[in-house]
Amino acid sequence: MLNSPPSDDSYQVVNALFSKGFFNDYEMSVNSLSLTVLELIRKGYIKVDIDCDESYSIGKKIKDKDLKVMNAINFRITSKSGDLKTSEVIATSMLKTVNKSKKFNLKSMYNQIKTTSIANKFKRDYLKYVRILEGENDYSSKEYKDILAESTLSDKGKDLKRQWKDYCKYLKSEKCGDFHLICACCFNIERDVECEDSQLSDFIDKDGYKMLNVIFKEALSNAREKSKGDGIFYDINDKYTIPGGG
Asked: Which of 155, 178, 185, 196 has the most CB atoms lying inside 10 A of its own CB?
């Protein structure tokens, strides 16, 4: 059983390549943005204060009962200096733009993305974020290193996927720090691992990663504008196809 990640690919690439089942389009999803936020929390660029002691879980959609917990999850974007990837800078900017502040809670963010103009801006920034993220990783949903070719995993890619699944078994058997916890999030098993105490583990304990995914998905679905940037037509009912991403 592997006790360390079998490759040094980014969280977002691992999620896109290895976390899904047989029918995988290998596209970056909103999970990528959520994983970037988790990494910013791990690095200390976002501080999380949670006024709720009990563990919590949400469903596929936000319900009224979830809003009380979301109101208790407070984010603060710090002024910490350091080298950030361009994708991380964009992600931070997206949070500040949506919430119009460096301080906010998840309930207020959820309410903000219901506003069409904010949802439209979020969608534009999200598409830019994915393009930058793919560029940073030299990734596309069709080609990546010697792992993915013509949107199909190579033999090496299939072997790596098996190794990552084996590593997931290790994550479930050991007490994890924040780095390993984000790896678990890549495979949606974060609630199945025992975590060391931290702001990030407390956030995950309240189903924060899933909350972010749901909020970001709803923001995209709330967008109403159409654009023809890069020759691709986007509409509310369209799949979120990324220019250059297949």
From this structure: 185
